[in-house]
Design a protein that fits this description.
By secondary structure, this protein is of the alpha/beta class. The protein is 34% helix and 22% strand. It has one domain: 3-Layer(aba) Sandwich (Rossmann fold). Strands 3-2-4-1-5-6 form a 6-stranded mixed beta sheet, sandwiched between helices. GO terms for molecular function: hydrolase activity.
Length: 165
Amino acid sequence: MTAIVPPPSRIYLLRHAEAAFPAPGQSDFDRPLSERGYAAAEILAENAADKSYKPDLVVSSTAIRCRQTADAVHRAMGENLDIRFVDALYNATPEIYLDILGAQQDMGAVMLVGHNPVIEQTLEALIGHQLLAQALPNGFPPGGLAVLDFDQGRNNWRLIDFMID
């Protein structure tokens, strides 16, 4: 398990919602959300807002499907939500995701909107393989949102909720 020191108090890991199949000649980076993905992103964002899950900062990949997922979060959680789009999250490693999270020391809660398998690998780095396998036996689904709190006493991350549309 990985400790981010000093940590934000809460981390939200959001895998972009379901993407459309690429059109002929379309790059992976430019794939938008499917119709189902748009709907799922909106529902998930609204449900998260209803649970008072609101980050201080959203850091999203610049890929179109991540931008669209982050936009759904923005609509559900308010105009003053700070969103930053970061090129390095596309085709990244878990270490890059963790470094970006660790750099947000002045934030109470941070949401990362990214891609699989890296979002799942990042969750595994934070909570460990055994807990990941128990919580997500079928892997990290598109549009899934992991909510993690830092346990100061144990100096580790705890998965407190996992949401899907």
